[in-house]
Specification:
single chain; 396 residues; alpha/beta; Rossmann fold; TIM Barrel; 2 domains; 8-stranded mixed β-sheet; 6-stranded mixed β-sheet; binds iron/sulfur cluster
Length: 396
């Protein structure tokens, strides 16, 4: 435990941890006494218990927190919780990341996560919080880059809208890298770049893209997503062994026909990966004109867990993969409010990424609230799904 944290908590008898994620659980196992419990906005986490500490909703916390309590936030997207922290009746809250410094995990209380993953999560919290409080810097926690519209699977409820592409294409590495260079020129630090599709390995240029992006100094981590249908190339091992690279493997059971090969390859070469089943699927792959009012769109955006999945495509940065792909598909009316140009001024990018109430695309989206009902993942469709195509000349 960092000395700074020990000093911080001394004198506080009632401590709450905001955020029931990896960093929050680690903190609870290391602070020991004087913790009362967790607070989390995700209704599915409320009532859960970890190490004997209960998770309270924000509304419950408002009723029980005393004025002299300390709240420590562990939430990565700190800009989303500041107004919530300030609505609590206690006098003081702090951001955990400001008290961390390349923390090594000695006492890991989370059985399901290994030490390296906990350290990875703590580093993310440290980077996000420190950068957020450096007001003259532009920090982005993560950027998703669309590598391809093609996928080896055809999930009818894909949240990235692959089920609608009738003639899917790979995006050229030149275009991707040029867009990325333009954006990164304006940004001081990106914690994590996530390479997504479709299936990124459908694009043969993927290794070149991985190599170039992971060599960029302003990037801390590169997460490569895959559905493990395509084996990795042995001859590209040098590229994949860059210590910044982590794989995220979604294991769709029989559909992910090369999971074992991919995992064996990564394990044999000590390349870190997370192998997991499809998680938290909700009905968010629908494009429809819901004719929402402005307050309804603001509410949908506030409750959306996807609104900080910044997505880069076509020379623009979007708040989420839904808006980026819906625009590529012309499945929503063209509207400049949906994105910001990679060549925009820093303050414009900063405002778009941290200080807007909704995007016009929210009118066409089911939303991704934490309490949305779960659906069966990865049901396959034989044909692309029809949708309404908007005239691209309509510019608002
Ligand atoms: S959800 Fe299915 S269709 Fe969408 S990218 Fe993943 S594997 Fe492909
Ligand atoms: S369009 Fe709006 S509601 Fe839908 S995922 Fe994006 S930010 Fe969330």
């Amino acid at each position: 435990m960092e000395k700074k944290i020990k000093k911080l908590i001394s004198g506080y008898e009632n401590i709450y941890i905001y955020g029931f994620g990896t960093a929050g659980k680690w903190l609870s196992g290391n602070l020991g006494k004087n913790i009362v419990g967790f607070i989390d906005s995700d209704i599915k986490k409320v009532g859960k218990i970890f190490s004997g500490f209960k998770v309270y909703s924000l509304e419950q916390a408002k009723k029980i927190i005393k004025k002299d309590s300390l709240v420590i936030t562990t939430v990565l997207d700190i800009q989303d919780v500041i107004s919530k922290l300030e609505s609590l009746p206690n006098d003081k809250w702090v951001a955990l990341g400001n008290y961390l410094k390349n923390t090594k995990v000695k006492n890991n209380p989370i059985d399901s996560e290994d030490d390296s993953y906990v350290e990875y999560s703590l580093k993310a919290v440290e980077s996000c919080h420190k950068s957020y409080f450096s007001k003259n810097k532009l920090f982005l926690k993560s950027i998703d880059i669309i590598i391809t519209e093609r996928c080896s699977l055809k999930c009818k409820d894909c949240s990235n809208l692959m089920q609608y592409y009738k003639k899917p294409i790979n995006i050229s590495s030149q275009e991707i890298l040029d867009n990325f260079d333009d954006l990164i020129r304006n940004v001081d630090h990106v914690y994590e770049v996530r390479l997504i599709g479709g299936e990124p390995f459908m694009n043969k240029d993927i290794y070149k893209i991985i190599e170039k992006i992971s060599s960029q100094e302003k990037i801390t981590k590169v997460v490569v997503y895959t559905n493990a249908t395509i084996p990795l190339k042995k001859e590209e091992i040098k590229t994949l062994m860059n210590p910044k690279i982590v794989f995220s493997i979604t294991d769709y059971g029989n559909l992910s026909r090369n999971t074992k090969k991919v995992i064996d390859f990564l394990s044999a070469n000590n390349i870190p990966f997370r192998d997991h089943p499809p998680e938290n699927w909700t009905d968010c792959g629908v494009i429809f004109d819901f004719k929402r009012t402005l307050p309804e769109m603001e509410k949908l955006f506030t409750d959306c867990c996807g609104k900080n999945l910044l997505t880069l495509t076509d020379g623009k940065l979007y708040r989420c993969p839904f808006a980026a792909n819906a625009d590529r598909l012309k499945g929503i009316p063209l509207d400049k409010g949906n994105s910001v140009s990679v060549n925009a001024k820093r303050n414009k990018i900063k405002k778009y990424t941290s200080d807007i109430k909704f995007i016009p695309a929210c009118n066409y989206c089911m939303g991704r609230s934490y309490d949305a009902p779960k659906i069966e993942p990865a049901i396959q469709t034989k044909k692309p799904i029809d949708y309404k195509v908007y005239d691209s000349n309509v510019i608002k």
